[in-house]
Amino acid sequence: MAFHVEGLVAIVVFYLAILAVGIWAAWKTKNTGSEGDRSEAIIVGGRDIGLLVGGFTMTATWVGGGYINGTAEAVYVPGYGLAWAQAPIGYSLSLVLGGLFFAKPMRSKGYVTMLDPFQQLYGKRMGGLLFIPALMGEMFWAAAIFSALGATISVIIDINVNISVIISALIATMYTLVGGLYSVAYTDVVQLFCIFLGLWISVPFAMSHPAVTDIGLTAVHHVHQAPWLGSINSLDIYTWLDNFLLLTLGGIPWQAYFQRVLSSSSATYAQVLSFLAAFGCLVMALPAVLIGAIGASTAWNETEYGVPDPMTKKEADMILPIVLQYLCPVYISFFGLGAVSAAVMSSADSSILSASSMFARNIYQLSFRQNASDREIVWVMRITVFLFGASATAMALLASSVYGLWYLSSDLVYIIIFPQLLCVLFIKGTNTYGAIAGYLFGLVLRITGGEPYLYLQPLIYYPGCYPDENNIYIQRFPFKTLAMLTSFFTNIIVSYLAKYLFESGTLPPKLDFLDAVVARYSREHMDKATLVKSDNIVLNELAPVNPRHSLTLSSTFTNKEAFNYVDSSPELSNTEDN
Fold first, then answer.
1. Which secondary structure element, helix H or strand E, spans residue 95, and what is its range?
2. Which of 10, 359, 408, 504 has a C-alpha 20 to 30 A away from that of 245?
3. Distance CA 4, CA 148 (A)
4. Euclidean distance between the first and the last CA atom of the chain, given in angstroms as a whole number
5. For the chain, what is the mean pLDDT?
6. What is the C-alpha separation between 91 and 97, in angstroms, rounded?
7. C-alpha to C-alpha distance for 114 and 131, rounded to whole angstroms
8. Average pLDDT for residues 129-149, to the nearest whole number?
9. Do 114 and 259 belong to one domain?
10. Taking the C-alpha atoms of 96, 270, 406 and 485 in order, what is their torsion angle to the nearest 10 degrees?
């Protein structure tokens, strides 16, 4: 394949335009936030993101390279088809559920990151533990989509994969570094527009290619391969449900999502943004579905691609750029490539910023440097944006199973963080002992279930498991959902058991080494006042809070239920309910 100068020029122009928008957004909003709130302005954009920009940036967070490439691949692969393209419906339902049940309580309490409520209720140790799967999910996701982008660009303009990955990562990291959420949000508007326009322009050209059979015919009839509508075998129903629940419920507890929720100007706006993004995800999936259907309807031996077809060559994951390259005119394929690169960067920048935000606030500031200045936190964020961007790039270049690592880490988000989020927001009485027990049970059940992408054999063979071509056993039983439910109920049971044992006197107070139940041995004083800032929240949406003004940030995080036994102190009794 020849080197395409025109394609390279098109990509360079597009990248420069994105970088210019990011720097402009950073310059436009450089004075946003008061002298002591610059770090919060970088993380949540001063909590003044409007509906238009907010809707675009939340949609673009999900509509990434994995989303459009993966949807097209699922529709194209024989035996799977549209029936197994779960991401569009799954992520849309995830956003709807997030808007209905999670957006308002998180935004109304004025949190800055997703981990704030965990550290507030369970303490900084548990916040650090939950940071691990959250960080893994964000980093491996960024690495996976950088890897996909490099392969996509190399297919169409035939340049070195490593160079394309490094340049793409540098662009995304640079504007995230200078502008934080503002740059990410404004560039998302441009990127989402490019994705929509680029893919929809490509579809009619690809569909009208002489080698492409009518997709209405190939949807239900076997022409070049099995019908692209696909089907679900009775043996695979539980696997389908397990994966669907993972996408729907596991798509909620991500910092990238809650960063947009918490940046909204009000709790109601946060809900509306979630619903708008759900609709946007469905709309943006349509061209990807059509491109996958076109790939399944093409006689590839009648194109320049030749034989064998992409499935036989094991290039099914690249079906979208292959359709752009071989079924569209050159100038259209370059425009479509811009759309793909836009999709990747719109997700990668969000992941890098999310990981940096959680580390700077929940690990560095709240766990180690409670008295750190705002300027210090801003510099920690900038350094970690660069480090996390470089790490994601290195993994994309060096790791042979980035996607396998991301699958495993996204499973951990579903199995560990989602049940913990349910407990911390909706289940009264859970504590650190239950949280740790639920964390460990969920982790053990997930790892012992095996992971084919990483060639990990299961230690627990659930009913219906079978070996694949590599003799790695595949689980048909919905063991991921089982692990999630086990983690959830373990948290509740152990929390109430620990509370009973300490409050009944069965266990002496000195054994409460996590300071989670017995107040007189607690070293910290919980108070939600420092997390809630009235100038950021509409008063009628503010959760009832009777603040006790703490003198230091270190006094912010301790379990308030530890003080339940005290009746005589008006100051402490006023913090009973929030």
1. helix 87-97
2. 359
3. 20
4. 64
5. 82
6. 10
7. 10
8. 85
9. yes
10. -60
pLDDT in tens, 412-442: 899 999 999 999 999 998 999 999 999 999 9
Average pLDDT over residues 474-486: 95
Q: Would you list the DSSP string of 209-225? A: STTBPPHHHHTTS-SSS
71 in Cβ contact with 88 (< 8 Å) = yes
DSSP run (H or E) holding 467: strand 466-467
Residue from 336, 292, 339, 354 nearest 88 by CA: 292
Among candidates 140, 136, 146, which has minimal Cα distance to 171? 146
Q: Under a CB-based contact definition with an 8 Å cutoff, are residues 149 and 317 in contact? A: no
Contact 322, 295 (CB under 8 A): yes
- Three-state DSSP at 474 gives strand
Q: Which residues of 388-403 are buried (b: 16+ CB within 10 A; e: fewer)?
A: bbebbbebbbebeebb
Residue 526 reports pLDDT greater than 70: no
Place of tokens 């008295």: 371
Number of domains in the chain: 2
Q: How far is CA 483 from the centre of its chain?
A: 20
Whether the per-residue pLDDT at 504 is higher than 80: the answer is yes
> Residues 113, 362: contact at Cβ < 8 Å?
yes
Spacing of C-alpha 352 from chain mean position: 11
Q: How confident is the model at residue 99 (pLDDT cuts 50, 70, 90)?
A: very high
Q: Which residue has the higher pLDDT, 385 or 561?
A: 385
Distance in angstroms (rounded) separating the CA atoms of residues 390 and 386: 6
The whole domain housing 445 covers: 427-524
Task: Specify the DSSP element, H or E, that contains 466.
Answer: strand 466-467
CA torsion sign, 426 to 432 to 437 to 443?
positive
pLDDT score of 46 more than 60? yes
Least confident of 161-170, 236-245, 285-294, 387-396: 161-170
Q: Would you say residue 368 lies in a domain?
A: no
Please give the biggest Cα pair distance in the chain: 85
Asked if 223 and 109 sit in the same domain, the reply is yes
Q: Does 223 map to a domain?
A: yes
Query: What is residue 308's DSSP assignment?
Result: S
Do residue 437 and residue 353 come from a single domain? no
Residue 237, classed as helix, strand or coil, is: helix
Residues 335 and 443 reside in one and the same domain: no
**In this structure, are residues 538 and 267 in contact, taking their beta carbons and an 8 Å threshold?**
yes
**How many angstroms separate the CA atoms of 532 and 159, rounded?**
50
- Of 253, 333, 249, 321, which is closest to residue 291 (Cα–Cα)? 321
436 plus 291 within the same structural domain: no
- The confidence score (pLDDT) of residue 400 equals 61
pLDDT (average), residues 352-370: 88
Residue pair 112/280 in contact by the 8 Å Cβ criterion: no
Please tell me the total number of residues recorded for the chain in this structure: 578
Question: What are the DSSP calls for 507-562, one per residue?
Answer: S-GGG-TT-SS-GGG-S----GGGG--GGGS-GGGSPP------SSGGGG-S-GGG
- Tokens 């929940």 belong to residue: 362
The helix (H) or strand (E) run that includes residue 473 is strand 473-474
- What is d(CA 239, CA 220) in angstroms, rounded to the nearest whole number? 24
Domain boundary among 507, 524, 541: 524
447: its two tokens:
């790892």
